[in-house]
Amino acid sequence: MGFFPDEVILLILARLPVKSLFKTKTVCKLWYRLASDKYFVRLYNELSAKNPMVLVEISDSIESKSSLICVDNLRGVSEFSLDFLKDRVKVRASCNGLLCCSSIPDKGVYYVCNPMTREFKLLPKSRERPVTRFYPDGEATLVGLACDLSRNKFNVVLAGYHRTFGHRPDGTFICLIFDSDSNKWRKFVSFREDHFTHMNKNQVAFVNGALHWLTGSCSYILALDLAYEVWRKISLPDELSYGTGNRVYLLESNGRLSLIQISDAWMKIWVMKDYERELWHMVDSVSLRCIRGLVPGIFPITQTGEYVFLATHKQVLVYHQRSKVWKEMYSVKNSATLPLWFSAHAFCSTIFPCD
C-alpha cells in the first residue's frame, strides 16, 4: 500500500477534532509542529468555520455546577469544562472558536479563552473604573467578540447606556473596545435612542469586519465597524412581517448576515447578498407544522446553507434544509434551571491563539 501525499494527510488531519489533533503530536516531528504551522492552522480554522455547532451551558440546580455541552452536526454531543479559568464565569459571546466570559463573583473581570486548546487571556481592567455604571444591572448591555481568523487578532466590545451614580441614564451610549494587538481598551461615546432586549443582546454577528446587533424594536440592525469605530444602521428586508407572534433573529451564515423570522407556522430565512447596498434575499420558507408544540419556545442559534440549529427549553434541534428533516440532537436530562436557548451560542472548533 502506497503512502498518501503530504497534502492529502494535511487535509485529513485538518478535519480532526482539536483534542484528537493534539494526540497525533506524538506520531512524528512533522505532526508535532502542525499546531504551530501557519499554513495548517489557517487550513484547519477555515474548514472548522464551515461546521458551526451549538454551545449550551447546562446548570445543575442541585449541585449549583455548570458544564458546557457542544452539539456538532457531524460528531454528535461532547462535554467540556472551563475549569482551567479557575473562576466561576458565564459565557457572554462566542466567535470563531473563542469565548468571551465574564466573572460571576468579580464584576468587570473578563476572559477570552479557547475551550478546545484550554488557552485563555485575562483582559486588563479598563481604566473606565465605574464599569458598574452601565445601566440597568451594572453590566454592559451589549457584549461582542470579533475574532479575525485571517489576521490572528480579536476584539472585545462592551457597550451600554451610562448612568452617573444616583442618577437616571442620560441616553449616553458608552463603547469600550479591547484590541488584542495593543492589549489595551479604547473608549468612545455616542448617543443611541434604541434599547436592546435581554434576549437579543447575546445575538451578535461578526461579518465584514463589523459586529452586528438587532435592536430591541427590531426596526434595524446596529453595526459597529471595528476599523473606523463608527456605528452604522442597516435596514431589514422589506418583506419582514411585524406584529404579534413574529420573532426575528440575527445570525451569520457562511460569512454573510442572515435573518430568521419565526411565526406560528413558518420559519423564513433571509441572507444579505450585497452588504454595501443592503440587499436581502429570501433563501427558504420552512413549515413548522411538524414541530408545532415547540414553536413558542424555539430559537435559532446558528446555521449554514445546509442546516439550521435551534434551541428550545430542553432540546437542541437541527433542521436539514435539503431533506426537510427535523432531528433532535440533544435533550437535557437533569433539572436544569434555565431554558437552553438562554445560554446557547454559535460555536466552531479552532486552534485560534488567544494569549
UniProtKB/TrEMBL annotation:
SUPFAM superfamilies: F-box domain. InterPro entries: F-box-assoc_dom_typ1, F-box-assoc_interact_dom, F-box-like_dom_sf, F-box_dom, SCF_F-box_component. Pfam families: F-box, FBA_1. SMART domains: FBOX. Residues 1-47 form the F-box domain. PANTHER family: BNACNNG10540D PROTEIN, F-BOX DOMAIN-CONTAINING PROTEIN. This is F-box protein At5g49610. The gene is LOC18603703.
